[in-house]
Amino acid sequence: MEKKSSIAMKNRRDTAIAATVFLLPAILVILVFIVYPIIQSFMNSGYDWNGYSSNKQFVGLTNWTHLLTDMAFWGAFCNNLLVMVLSIVIQMPIGIALATFLDRVGKKGDICKVIWFIPMLMSSVAIGYLFRYALDPSTGFVTAVSKAFGGSKVDLLGNPSSVLFTCIFIIAWQFIPFYMVYYMAGYGSIPGDVKEAAMIDGATQGQYFWKVALPLLAPSIKSAVVLSIVGSLKYFDLIYVMTGGGPGSSSELMATYMYSEAFESYRMGYASTIASGMFILISVIAIVTMRLLNRKED
Q: How confident is the model at residue 298 (pLDDT cuts 50, 70, 90)?
C-alpha cells in the first residue's frame, strides 16, 4: 500500500514538472508581451513625457483627470460603440447564414468556402489601401458607377456623415468569413443523428434551424459576440490607413486617438493614460457582456 502511494506521488510530481516545463514558455511570453506592457502603461500614465526624452515629469493623476473630461476621447469611444454594435448586427447574422448554407450543401459548397474566405486572408492594411483607392472621389468605382447613371462624384470617405458607416461596412466584409468558419465549427459539433431525428419527426429545414441548430449554436454565438466586442473596441489598422480618424474626428477611434497623441503630438504620458483607459473600458464591457450572456445558464 505504501509502495502504491509513493508511486502515485512520484507520478503527480512528474506530471507537475512536465506541466511546468511546457507552460513556462507561454507564461513568459504572456508576462513579457502582455502583463508588462499593461503595467508599464499604467505607470507611464502618471508622467508628462514626450516618449523619447529621459526627462519624465511626474504629474500624478493629472492625465486621468484630463481624460475624464476629454470630449475627443469620449467621442472616439462613442464611435467605437457604434462600430461594436453594427459589427455584431451585420457580422453575426450573415456569418450564421453563410455557415448554415455551407452546412446544408456539404462538399458542393467547397468552392464557396474558398472564395468567401479570401477577405480574411488579406491584411487589414492591404484592404485599407485597396478601398482607399477604390472609393477615391475622382477615380474610384463608386464615382464611376454614379457618373455612368448621370450622377456626380461620390466621396464616401470624405463625408463626415458617411465615413464611419463606410468603414464599418468594410470591416464587416473582412471579418464575416472568420465568423462563418467559427459557426461552421459549431455546426460540426452538432451530432448528425440530431438532425436525422428532427427530419424523421417531420421538422422542416427552417424548423430544424430555429428549434434545434440555433439553440445548439448558442455557446458559439456567445463566444463570437465577445470576440466581436473586444475586437471592435480596440480596432485600429484599417481605420488609420483609410481615414486617419478623419475627416475631422468623424471616424476617430480610441486606438487612433491614442496613436495620434503618442506619435504625432508626442504626449506619450497622456497616450499611456488613453491606453490604460481603453484597457479598463474594454475589460468592463467584456465582463458585463459575458455575465449577461451567461446569466440564463447560471
A: low
- Residues 235-252, mean pLDDT to the nearest whole number: 92
Name the one residue in this structure whose C-alpha cell is 445558464: 297
Q: Contact 247/167 with Cβ under 8 angstroms?
A: no
- pLDDT for 62-105, tens place per residue? 999 999 999 999 999 999 999 999 999 999 999 999 999 998 88
Main-chain phi, psi angles of 154, to 5 degrees: -120, 120
Alpha-carbon gap, residue 260 to 271, rounded angstroms: 8
pTM of the shown model: 0.89
Which H/E stretch holds residue 258?
Answer: helix 254-263
Q: Look at residue 5 and tell me whether its pLDDT is greater than 80.
A: no
Give SS3 for 141.
helix
Closest residue by Cα to residue 273 from 60, 121, 75, 87? 60
* Distant-in-sequence, close-in-space partners of 152: CB < 8 Å, separation ≥ 6: 146
Cβ burial 104-114 (10 Å sphere, 16+ → b, else e): eeeeebeeeee
- The CB density around residue 31, as the number of other CB atoms within 10 Å, is 11
On the CB side of 32, how many CA atoms lie within 13 Å of its CA?
Answer: 6
For residue 167, give the nearest of 248, 253, 93 by alpha carbon: 253
Percent of the chain surpassing pLDDT 90:
65
CA 256 – CA 273 distance, rounded (Å): 14
Per the listing, cell 488609420 goes with 240
Mean predicted confidence (pLDDT) in 263-288:
94
d(CA 83, CA 156): 17
Query: Does the N-terminal peptide bond of residue 247 adopt cis geometry, omega within 30 degrees of 0?
Result: yes
Residue 256 burial by CB count (10 A; 0-12/13-18/19+): exposed, middle or buried? buried
E-strand ranges in the chain read 47-48, 57-58
